[in-house]
Amino acid sequence: MSTNSHEASKSEKSIDRVYNYVKYYIKENTFSPSVRDICKGAGLKSTSSVHTYLKKLDEMGLIEYRPGMRRAIIIKNQDDEAQDPTPADVVKLPCIGKITAGQPIYAHEDYSDSFYVNRSIIGSNECFLLKVSGTSMINAHIMDGDYLIVRKQSSCQEGDIVAALINDEATVKRFGKMNGVPYLFPENDMYSPIPFNTEDCRILGKVIGLHRYSIY
Amino acid sequence: MSTNSHEASKSEKSIDRVYNYVKYYIKENTFSPSVRDICKGAGLKSTSSVHTYLKKLDEMGLIEYRPGMRRAIIIKNQDDEAQDPTPADVVKLPCIGKITAGQPIYAHEDYSDSFYVNRSIIGSNECFLLKVSGTSMINAHIMDGDYLIVRKQSSCQEGDIVAALINDEATVKRFGKMNGVPYLFPENDMYSPIPFNTEDCRILGKVIGLHRYSIY
DNA sequence: TCCAAATAAGAACAAGTGTTTGACAAAAGC
DNA sequence: GCTTTTGTCAAACACTTGTTCTTATTTGGA
Questions:
Q1: What's the pTM value of the predicted model, to 2 decimals?
Q2: A72, B138: Cβ pair inside 8 Å?
Q3: Per-residue model confidence (pLDDT) at position A208
Q4: What is the pLDDT of residues A147-185, one digit of tens each?
Q5: Chain A residues within an 8 Å CB radius of B208
Q6: Range list of H helices, chain A
Q7: pLDDT at residue B113 greater than cutoff 50
Q8: Which residue of A has its CA nearest to B37?
Q9: In angstroms, rounded to a whole number, what is the distance separating the alpha carbons of residues A182 and A17?
Q10: B11 classed as catalytic
Q11: In chain A, what are the domains?
């Protein structure tokens, strides 16, 4: 972004002003400016110019500019200060209800169901909760109604109990192999192993914990 | 807004979900969700419903909702909860290692092995944790190494899973009766029921939750 | 059981906003 | 001086999204 010691060209000045104004605006308002807001703020009279610079800034990796989304600019490289003062001891995790393929995990979930989990359990990993429905893992002592703590990851090892997406449906199974072929094994004699083919199946994460609040 | 004191009405649930989802979304993405995003997140199918709730939330002073502006919701009063995990939401419970008869339960506890549990689980009751050792309750899907959340109480009902003191030793069993005589039943065919006589036995509390952090 | 109020849904509309296209002027290169 | 490149602008277009209106559905109480 910086040039030599000589003066910045006109375009550099503009792109700089755009960048700075976006940062300033977000800091002031919490939300992003629109392209037209930036016009005013950066002294440009055409939305198209601003648009061009925003795309450039995105390419440079300074911002994240989602195509088509209004007021959705994200300033990057803020890691240093942006860190939430998340209390060290405890983390609030959302509970995923339904998961749709293709969408990021958190996309559609019903957020209402969530609770705190000890930080020591999940460390710095990204995790979510999954409420068990059914008894397909009963032999692993995972019961209907249990909440599973799932550490997000897209791969796993043999023997891991994983949360997986099978044809848009989220389930919990044990990952393993039979004759070298990967399967998702239920832990219940009433159910059959499911061949793991990368087309219909996707690993969401590994189960690292379990909370049960219905004891019978 | 409130109906009876015990249960939230449907509307409260929805407005709550909207509010929570907005908070969650902004935390995740930096920018606000659109009305249609909130629809998905809060499980509502009409933008108009969401719009109504957003206006209400604005009136309540919980958010700032600018008419006509896209993705420009501001969460207010973040100071309160953004800090520590609202102490009200979470409670630190001690894990009891050894318990000695006659001593109050908390007497010897070693706070080193303690962790946070959601307030919603235990309410205003006095609780403690008990780490399971052994497999005597395996048929109830309680495994070696599990942490049990025990609500302190000195009596219990038939069928309850309880923490009890038998000759100075703390164990977990299911309380029940056989031919009218009270017993403590292990949930494992390898063990025998223990007659419950008030001289050697004492109920410490009822198991109301379970945390497992060793998944195999 | 029935009616009224509260919720939610669905559709249609209107406005804000991102994106594209083309044009023009200034600057840079030859 | 002429061409090319760069920066800017203006306008038009298309999509996202906020808003409103109407109609169904549910809820709660008489």
A1: 0.55
A2: no
A3: 92
A4: 899 988 878 888 899 988 776 567 889 999 989 899 999
A5: 213, 215
A6: 10-29, 35-42, 47-60, 79-82, 119-122
A7: yes
A8: A108
A9: 54
A10: no
A11: 3-75 (1.10.10.10), 90-211 (2.10.109.10)
